[in-house]
Design a protein that fits this description.
The complex is a heterodimer of chains A (113) and B (117). In chain A, 0% of the residues lie in helices and 56% in strands. Chain A is mostly beta strands and 113 residues long. Chain B has strands at 3-6, 11-14, 19-21, 23-26, 32-38, 44-50, 56-59, 62-65, 75-77, 86-95, 102-107, 111-116. Classes of the chains: A mainly beta (113), B mainly beta (117).
């Protein structure tokens, strides 16, 4: 099946710093990528839909200036958490869309101290 | 809006027991329904899906039938194994305006399954 990778798998940062998370589709081209956030023992919450070469579409309540998404190529989308705070600590998951199916990355655990 | 409700876990079973994880949904139109599985330390994987009423999705011994009349998509397996221990997510999506691709997924809250030898 199609493989999606994320980097880094874990990151710890200080409050106020910015963190970039990469999502790559390794063996397919993903015109559309999705970014999710997963809190402990809770479901995945869609943050934004990222389309290659265009601006991301953010879900209601998600701050686009805080969670910057760039989808510069068909195999790479990045999520940058700007001026991170402890409440941004979470598990971030991306997925790439191929033939009407979403393929998920393994996730990135962000801890903001 | 769309929503998915799963039975709360965690669910703990002995090996070879029968498994049911309930899932009901609320959606306009005719959504597609999915079950995803997340093994420890791994990303979500599609387990099975159904795209229209009365369809049965099946994979690895798991089954779920799209019941429009009860708006349900319950996951079942006749005999679970220790290796089935994971988190299971029910989800739905609806086709975009062009009808050519699935839109964004709406997930249930997930059910943790632990199978003991």
């Amino acid at each position: 099946g199609a493989v999606v990778s994320q980097h880094p798998s874990r990151v710890i940062c200080k409050s106020g710093t910015s963190v970039k998370i990469e999502c790559r589709s390794l063996d397919f081209q993903a015109t559309t990528m999705f970014w999710y956030r997963q809190f402990p023992k809770q479901s995945l919450m869609l943050m934004a839909t990222s389309n290659e070469g265009s601006k991301a579409t953010y879900e209601q309540g998600v701050e686009k200036d805080k969670f910057l998404i760039n989808h510069a190529s068909l195999t790479l989308s990045t999520l940058t958490v700007t001026s991170a705070h402890p409440e941004d600590s979470s598990f971030y998951i991306c997925s790439g869309s191929l033939y009407n199916e979403q393929f998920f990355g393994p996730g990135t655990r962000l801890t903001v101290l | 809006g769309n929503s998915v409700t799963q039975m709360e876990g965690p669910v703990t079973l002995s090996e070879e027991a029968f498994l049911t994880i309930n899932c009901t949904y609320t959606a306009t139109g005719y959504p597609s329904l999915f079950w995803y599985v997340q093994y420890p330390g791994e990303g979500l994987q599609l387990l099975l899906k159904a795209t229209k009423a009365d369809d049965k999705g099946s994979n690895k011994g798991f089954e779920a039938t799209y019941r429009k009349e009860t708006t349900s998509f319950h996951l079942e397996k006749g005999s679970v194994q220790v290796s089935d221990s994971a988190v299971y997510f029910c989800a739905l999506s609806q086709r975009n305006a062009g009808g050519t691709s699935y839109g964004k997924l709406t997930f249930g809250q997930g059910t943790i399954l632990t199978v003991h030898p």
